[in-house]
């Protein structure tokens, strides 16, 4: 917690709290109070540290992508967080003594830079306050309470330029010099691994004349050159694809051509693929596909949307004169936009009227574009640095949200974010000038979906939306209150005087929206009460001091930094699925049930025995339908983004609408729709979003893109990554027949008194190629069914279906006959099928694969028993959750996870792939270009659980 004090002692206590100047005229400094830390104890001394080995491999081919051994992290940090932070954020040449080896070095590098800049620029009342600020910032980062965006970890405290922003907006005018400069500036930003957006509407259309008398090329033509440039820089070694946003106003004469660009390219991909061209990702012919490196959005104004509503005409205007040069049917154009989005997920929509109605600086220019993920919206040639709070860190044991501590944490974080602008470098001088003049910040949060589930709120419910809105209002209200206090310490932003009236108007709009918020429970009511106080105090302070920052908050994707904080959910998103993929030390993996589920069940009043049974059901089925003892009215609490009970598209839109009035910027989010969705439904979402006051959104209809990377063994799964080029599987599977003479083995068996024979035939290399099961008399129904079953399995094996896939599906099937067997390796079977595939696994799968499936021979089980700690009956040390190091630490077992953990299928490398394996639902997401695993959605971007790479902003 911080307050402000003057250099002389005559300043009153009320003055100290409100960020004004002291009576002597001297500037006030911040007096910082402790939130988490203890005086005389450094935050590092309050945690237990452990050494870990980080070895990251490509999931597909087993090659090592990164290796660093003996790194130091708190024991509480997960293996995934350690891997990602070590590989992404540690600085120094790999393998050298200069490379960072400890999280302490990383945090010290960043926090020391922030603290020193704060002292140098007059933010703190004394060096003691600066030290407390340093300790609080360190404690929160150490305990994963929040994280800065990735550029901070990449650059701050290093010899590199001190770039702290992840979000950029460029500008382009209707001159060739400006257009070529756009290519250059965009390339510089892409080279640094960041993304940028811009609006092309100033460029004359292809229906207008040049001063020389010729016809202009139009913005769509120039998009081709920019797309090629982005693709080239992407392929030149960047760690992720170039991320960019291209916006065109709906009244631009070339709007119809712009709308159809990507849909036409999708048709091209289909034709070329069918003609035999190499359209695989990275294929020799893929470069003929254009416009694939950008997200496209149409900027619609209120005039257009009202014309859509009433069925009127709409004028397309010349760029130079503003005169109407063509009139179109608004409904027809709106249908064209929705049709294109239905076909290929582009374009998205940005609502110009809503965006500029909440603009704090209209006297300095309109908001015309956004960053690639659509959450940052402000002036052209500007940037925004981000930080996100982990909401689960503020959930008390009684299920209440700790609004007071949350508010204090926001004060410290927003102070640090503003300090960073004092020393930050920028990719271009115009961006630097605008950012230093307006000091745009983007505080946000992650783990909302986990918080709602843990507190027993359905994501798509009045209670869930009310709590989310109250938290968002508290965050932004506190951020602006602190911004007003900072204005009294180090001055308002330079552009404030010119925009004072507009800025104050927007602050009153936020406060009025907070007053209109209707709470439905005790938790959200308590948060709302604190938020109301923050807005009231902030308005009073701002009227006296102005504000330090032109904007304060956004809701970003939180991809890589979400893993750094060990968040279950990203940004504003619901939980992705109830079953999760978790890596183990040593290279194994487990599938576990999301640990938010037991907490949610407890908050709903279920007893431990009921919780255990429900969790076991989820572990097996991947959903809560028909879970034993779970009341149907509670099903909605466990609805997720994907799976059996996926949240309806409008559920996502309603959540966005609940949070939007309390954000300076917008929300990074793509609304997923089922493959069966209609164009009319897309129209409905785009229209309703305008009515509900959302600033921007995009939709993705499952499997709508023809060209997309597919994960191995999941041909029904397609990428929704808008930045991805095309890749399709155009060769069918090939059958590998067994030789005429082959090795075979016959086993007699008895299951629950029913007898039979299993014969297996093998390839020369030992691989299983066929099975025959003989039960009952020839000609009987059972015999016929088993013959057909054996034939189906045999043909599938010869076409390359992995044996372990069948074993994973058929073991534990329950039906009669079942019970005791005469096989010493499989003493009890839940069915004949369960026995057959356990026996086949024992005979034809290697031990490591069987271990992942939980199948052991009698000799192997005896060896495990021999490894037991005698006297206690406890198993020897087993690292089930994979959170402990193999270097100098003793692994422990999480009792909750032991009850719900099971080996992950060997073909699975991420939660997306696990969800496909467990539920059969296809998850539309691209493969990671770094490690090969299937990514998962994070806002309007995608993030890799394996290595932390993202498809857009970070």
TrEMBL record:
Task: Give every Ribonucleotide reductase large subunit C-terminal domain span.
Answer: 165-700
| InterPro entries xrefs | RdRp_reductase_class-2 (IPR050862), RNR_2_N (IPR013678), RNR_lg_C (IPR000788), RNR_NrdJ/NrdZ (IPR013344), TSCPD_dom (IPR024434)
Instruction: Quote the Pfam families the UniProt record gives.
Output: Ribonuc_red_2_N, Ribonuc_red_lgC, TSCPD
Q: Which UniProt keywords apply?
A: Cobalamin, Cobalt, Disulfide bond, DNA synthesis, Nucleotide-binding, Oxidoreductase
Catalysis: reaction(s) = a 2'-deoxyribonucleoside 5'-diphosphate + [thioredoxin]-disulfide + H2O = a ribonucleoside 5'-diphosphate + [thioredoxin]-dithiol
Q: What is its EC number?
A: 1.17.4.1
Q: Name one GO molecular function term.
A: ribonucleoside-diphosphate reductase activity, thioredoxin disulfide as acceptor
Cofactor(s) the protein needs: adenosylcob(III)alamin
Domain named TSCPD is located at 739-842
Residues of the Ribonucleotide reductase class II vitamin B12-dependent N-terminal domain = 54-144
Give the Gene3D superfamilies listed for this entry: 3.20.70.20
Record field: compositional bias (Polar residues): 1-16
Disordered: region residues: 1-25
Q: What does this protein do?
A: Catalyzes the reduction of ribonucleotides to deoxyribonucleotides. May function to provide a pool of deoxyribonucleotide precursors for DNA repair during oxygen limitation and/or for immediate growth after restoration of oxygen.
Tell me the protein family, please.
Belongs to the ribonucleoside diphosphate reductase class-2 family.
Name of the molecule in the record: Vitamin B12-dependent ribonucleotide reductase
């Amino acid at each position: 917690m911080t307050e402000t004090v003057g250099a002389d002692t005559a300043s009153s206590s009320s003055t100290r709290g409100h960020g004004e100047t002291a009576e002597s005229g001297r500037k006030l400094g911040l007096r910082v109070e402790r939130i988490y830390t203890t005086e005389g104890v450094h935050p590092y001394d309050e945690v237990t540290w452990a050494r870990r080995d980080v070895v990251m491999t490509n999931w597909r081919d087993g090659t090592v992508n990164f290796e660093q051994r003996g790194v130091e992290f708190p024991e509480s940090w997960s293996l995934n967080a350690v891997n990602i932070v070590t590989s992404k954020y540690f600085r120094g040449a790999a393998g050298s003594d200069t490379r960072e080896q400890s999280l302490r070095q990383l945090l010290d590098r960043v926090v020391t830079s922030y603290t020193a800049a704060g002292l140098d620029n007059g933010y703190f009342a004394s060096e003691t306050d600066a030290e407390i600020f340093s300790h609080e910032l360190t404690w929160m980062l150490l305990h994963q309470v929040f994280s800065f965006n990735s550029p901070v970890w990449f650059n701050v405290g290093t010899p590199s330029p001190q770039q702290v922003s992840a979000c950029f907006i460029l500008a382009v005018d209707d001159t060739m010099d400006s257009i070529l400069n756009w290519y250059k500036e965009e390339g510089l930003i892409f080279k640094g691994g960041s993304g940028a957006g811009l609006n092309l509407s100033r460029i004359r259309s292809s229906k207008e004349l040049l001063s020389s008398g010729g016809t202009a090329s139009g913005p769509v033509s120039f998009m081709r050159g920019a797309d090629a440039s982005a693709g080239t820089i992407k392929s030149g070694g960047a760690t992720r694809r170039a991320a960019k946003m291209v916006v065109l106003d709906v009244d631009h004469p070339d709007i119809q051509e712009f709308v159809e660009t990507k849909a036409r390219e999708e048709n091209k991909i289909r034709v070329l693929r069918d003609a035999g061209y190499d359209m695989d990702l990275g294929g020799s012919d893929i470069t003929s596909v254009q416009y694939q490196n950008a997200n496209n959005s149409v900027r619609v104004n209120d005039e257009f949307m009202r014309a859509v509503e009433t069925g009127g005409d709409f004028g397309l205007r010349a760029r130079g004169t503003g005169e109407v040069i063509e009139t179109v049917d608004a409904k027809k154009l709106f249908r064209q936009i929705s049709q294109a989005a239905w076909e290929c997920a582009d374009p998205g929509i940005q609502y110009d009227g809503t965006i500029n109605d909440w603009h704090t600086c209209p006297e300095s220019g309109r908001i015309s574009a956004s960053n690639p993920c659509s959450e940052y919206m402000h002036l052209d040639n500007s940037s925004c640095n981000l930080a996100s709070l982990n909401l689960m860190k503020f959930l008390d044991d009684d299920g209440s949200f700790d609004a007071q501590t949350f508010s204090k944490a926001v004060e410290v974080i927003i102070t640090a974010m503003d300090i960073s602008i004092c020393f930050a470098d920028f990719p271009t001088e115009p961006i630097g000038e605008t950012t230093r003049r307006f000091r745009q910040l983007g505080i946000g949060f992650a783990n909302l979906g986990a918080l709602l589930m843990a507190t027993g709120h359905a994501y798509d419910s009045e209670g869930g939306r009310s709590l989310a809105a109250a938290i968002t209002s508290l965050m932004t209200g506190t951020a602006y209150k602190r911004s007003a206090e900072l204005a009294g310490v180090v001055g308002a932003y330079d552009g404030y005087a010119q925009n004072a009236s507009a800025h104050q108007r927007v602050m009153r709009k936020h406060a009025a929206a907070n007053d209109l918020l209707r709470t439905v429970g005790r938790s959200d009511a308590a948060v709302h009460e604190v938020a109301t106080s923050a807005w009231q105090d902030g308005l009073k302070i701002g009227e006296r001091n102005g504000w330090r920052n032109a904007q304060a908050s956004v809701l970003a994707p939180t991809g890589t930094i979400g893993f750094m904080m060990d968040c279950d959910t990203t940004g504003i998103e619901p939980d992705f699925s109830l079953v999760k993929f978790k890596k183990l030390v040593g290279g194994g993996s487990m599938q576990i049930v999301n640990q938010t589920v037991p907490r949610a069940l407890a908050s709903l009043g279920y007893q431990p025995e009921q919780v255990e049974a429900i969790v076991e059901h989820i572990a097996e089925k991947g959903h809560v339908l028909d879970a034993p003892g779970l009341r149907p009215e509670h099903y909605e609490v466990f609805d997720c983004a994907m799976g059996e009970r996926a949240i309806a598209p409008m559920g996502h839109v309603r959540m966005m609408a609940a949070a939007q009035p309390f954000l300076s910027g917008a929300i990074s989010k793509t609304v997923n729709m089922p493959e069966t969705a209609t164009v009319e439904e897309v129209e409905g979402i785009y229209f309703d979003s305008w009515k509900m006051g959302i600033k921007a959104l995009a939709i993705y209809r499952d499997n709508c893109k023809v060209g997309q990377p597919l994960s191995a063994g999941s041909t029904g799964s397609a990428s929704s990554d808008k930045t991805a080029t095309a890749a399709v599987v155009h060769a069918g599977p090939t059958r590998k027949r067994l030789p005429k003479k082959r090795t075979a083995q016959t086993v007699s068996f008895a299951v629950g008194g029913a007898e039979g024979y299993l014969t297996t035939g093998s390839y020369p290399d030992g691989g299983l190629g066929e099975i025959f099961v003989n039960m009952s008399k020839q000609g009987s129904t059972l015999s016929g069914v088993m013959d057909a079953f054996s034939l189906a399995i045999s043909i599938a094996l010869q076409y390359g279906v992995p044996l372990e896939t069948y074993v994973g599906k058929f073991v534990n099937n329950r039906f009669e006959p079942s019970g005791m067997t005469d096989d010493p390796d499989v003493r009890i079977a839940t069915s004949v099928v369960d026995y057959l595939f356990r026996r086949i696994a024992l005979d034809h799968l290697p031990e490591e694969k069987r271990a992942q499936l939980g199948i052991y021979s009698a000799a192997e089980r005896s060896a495990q028993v021999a490894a037991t700690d005698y006297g206690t009956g406890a198993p020897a040390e087993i690292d089930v959750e994979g959170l402990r190091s193999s270097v100098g630490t003793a692994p422990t077992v999480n009792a909750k996870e032991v009850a719900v953990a099971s080996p992950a299928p060997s073909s699975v490398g991420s939660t997306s792939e696990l969800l496909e394996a467990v539920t059969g639902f296809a998850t539309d997401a691209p493969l990671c270009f770094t490690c090969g695993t299937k990514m998962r959605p994070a806002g309007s971007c995608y993030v890799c659980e394996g290595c932390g790479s993202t498809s857009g902003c970070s």
